[in-house]
Automatic annotation (TrEMBL):
It is found in: Cytoplasm. Mg(2+) binds at D226, D250, D254. It comes from Phyllobacterium trifolii. It comes from the Bacteria. This is 3-isopropylmalate dehydrogenase. It is an enzyme of class 1 (oxidoreductase).
Amino acid sequence: MAAKKLLLLPGDGIGPEAMAEVRKIIAYMNAELESDFSLEEGLVGGCAYDAHGKAISEADMAKALAADAVLFGAVGGPKWDTVPYDVRPEAGLLRLRKDMELFANLRPAICYPALADSSSLKKEIVEGLDILIVRELTGGVYFGEPKEIRDLGNGQKRGIDTQVYDTYEIERISGVAFELARTRANKVTSMEKRNVMMSGVLWNEVVTATHKAKYSDVKLEHMLADAGGMQLVRWPKQFDVIVTDNLFGDMLSDIAAMLTGSLGMLPSASLGAPDAKTGKRKALYEPVHGSAPDIAGTGAANPIAMIASFAMCLRYSFNMVAEADRLEAAIAGVLDDGLRTGDIMSEGKTKIGTVEMGDAILAKFRALAM
Ligand code: NAD
Ligand code: IPM
Ligand code: MN
């Protein structure tokens, strides 16, 4: 069997701390489950900027394109707040998404039973929650041109971002959402702002047409994205799959994270289109959270989002469904045992750090394999 080529890009802040816990799981899988992962490592974000003045080097970009899957930690931090926009830490992540053509970002928000008390919302609102946000990731206002600060010559400047969507981009992301809905509760809610945005009018039209042409068995509803944010905190269990654009998806997924208890809980998979010949997709797995500068270096970060992102990698890139299920069950089991990092801590539970949480999940994962 050819080795499964993984590129690890731990990044900045808590990224490397969380990635270290995944590395332990991979080492165990190679040693005892004959999983045959081969690991490479690279720099992305502020650490890459410090090393070579760019948020990702060409050599690491080439490694990412050649890998079977990329595991990404987090980037950014106050140290790089004043560096030019095109070499900022975040630019490394945006380049990876764009050059790898990772148009589909899957952000599942699951409220583990043991954490129903940790949300800022009432238990009955989040208990049993299982929704999936499908965020368009390579288009919209993140990448539209022009994108610049223009000097107007009269002492004024103009900051310009451009929201652009073409038919094919909306078709392919809604196709992903409909396909995934069929494997779940069979419902898609599309969110845009067709009341004020032309891209929203087109989004709505194309999602409706795609649904009619190929997916009329799936229940489809449309919601204005601002109302969608409100509904997410009012009664999130009304949703199954939410499909939305790049910027709305960014914001709505941070909201969804808090339904599950913490940003430290939310994994994601960023996927490209399947290759016409091999069926393989380019893929990068990234927690939804950032580099958490406020807790970086203290050993307090929750590694669950990163570990659950690796579980998504096992599922989507390597079809290792049993192992993915087992790793997710290990996470749930450790939470059932009452172990908590600070971000999800509640009364009567046992507070532990990043390393202890990683160790506990690995021990559970191992035990479930016996
Ligand atoms: P953040 O996600 O880093 O942190 C927000 C809050 O959530 C902080 O209080 C943090 O301590 C907490 N938090 C986040 N992840 C946690 C975890 N795993 N365990 C425990 N607590 C956790 O967002 P921010 O503070 O707005 O951004 C900090 C930097 O990260 C910025 O430079 C931003 O651009 C960057 N960022 C990067 C990514 C990414 O790399 N994918 C995502 C979001 C933000
Ligand atoms: C995310 C992050 C990124 C985004 C940043 C760091 C570029 O917030 O993945 O949610 O805005 O997409
Ligand atoms: Mn975000």
